[in-house]
């Protein structure tokens, strides 16, 4: 099923981003909207790109590999899903950011592939602060040790944190999680670890991006509100 009101959806979200930024005195330029294009057809995604969606998020390495050549190099691909070490090679020279690093083993494997391509790969560390919905992401208690070890790798740069909050009906329920993310990022930043920046906070999805923005998100990942319900059949 092709979606017809893409342009309207995107414009509605942009207005909503403006409103939430205004509510908390933030600049809209500091919040990037990532259109989560997983499961969507190439013609549909091309339409979104035409509407200005240049940041695209995918959760499968193969999907990025297969879609990549259909798009201009203006498009910035984001890996937002669980990444297996044997699939890093599909995306290492295609993505601008890997949001979902949650182990030292994965970071080392990314570092190795990045070094082969002679690039430095920007990454985020994925935190699991809800301890229920998501199987992925690390516990807060392990963050500092993980950040300091990954920071020693020469072909990776830690740029911030990412989380997937639980699905909730009332987005206010996720506010404490987003606030916690911001607090943790400020805490890590204050330690001034070499090769570590906390300038990016990737949090907020279709159901709760407004609250995430108010709590400091610099990237929101929105799929359903742009493209409609996903069809996994
Ligand atoms: C699918 C997905 C999203 C988008 O979710 P929507 O509710 O459709 O906006 C965001 N982040 C991640 C990691 C996802 O896998």
Which structural class fits the helix and strand makeup? alpha/beta
β-strand amount: 15-25%
N-to-C order of helices and strands: HEHEHEHEHEHEHEHEH
Q: Write out the strand line-up for the largest beta sheet, numbering strands in chain order.
A: 7-6-5-4-3-2-1-8
- Number of separate helices: 9
Helicity level, as a percent range?
A: 25-40%
Reported for the largest beta sheet, the result is: 8 strands, parallel
Number of strands: 8
- Which shape, going by the Cα principal axes? globular
Span between termini: 12 Å
Say what the CATH topology is.
TIM Barrel
CATH hierarchy class name: Alpha Beta
Report the bound ligands by name, code or SMILES.
Answer: pyridoxal-5'-phosphate
What is the number of independent domains?
Answer: 1
- Average pLDDT, rounded to a whole number, is 96
Structure summary:
This protein has 233 residues and is α/β, with parallel strands linked by helices.
Give the secondary structure arrangement, pairings included.
Blueprint: H1 6-23, E1 32-36, H2 42-50, E2 55-58, H3 61-68, E3 76-79, H4 88-91, E4 95-101, H5 104-116, E5 121-127, H6 143-150, E6 156-163, H7 175-190, E7 196-202, H8 209-214, E8 219-222, H9 224-227
Parallel strand pairs: 1-2, 1-8, 2-3, 3-4, 4-5, 5-6, 6-7
């Amino acid at each position: 099923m092709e979606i017809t009101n893409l342009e309207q959806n995107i414009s509605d979200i942009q207005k909503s981003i403006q409103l939430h930024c205004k509510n908390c005195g933030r600049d809209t330029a500091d919040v990037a909207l990532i259109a989560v294009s997983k499961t969507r057809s190439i013609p549909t995604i091309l339409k979104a790109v035409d509407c200005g969606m240049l940041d695209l998020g995918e959760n499968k390495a193969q999907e990025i590999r297969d879609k990549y050549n259909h798009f201009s190099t203006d498009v910035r691909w984001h890996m937002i899903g669980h990444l297996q070490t044997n699939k890093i090679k599909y995306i290492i020279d295609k993505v601008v950011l890997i949001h979902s690093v949650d182990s030292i083993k994965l970071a080392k494997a990314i570092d190795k592939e990045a070094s082969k391509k002679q690039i430095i790969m920007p990454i985020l560390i994925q935190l699991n602060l809800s301890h229920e919905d998501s199987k992925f992401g690390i516990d807060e208690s392990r963050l500092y040790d993980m950040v300091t070890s990954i920071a020693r790798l020469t072909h990776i740069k830690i740029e911030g944190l990412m989380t997937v909050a639980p699905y909730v009906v009332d987005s206010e329920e996720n506010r404490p999680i987003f606030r916690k993310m911001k607090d943790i990022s400020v805490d890590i930043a204050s330690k001034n670890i070499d090769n570590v920046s906390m300038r990016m906070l990737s949090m907020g999805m279709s159901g709760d991006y407004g609250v995430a923005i108010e709590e400091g998100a610099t990237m929101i990942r929105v799929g359903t509100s742009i493209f409609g319900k996903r069809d996994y059949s």
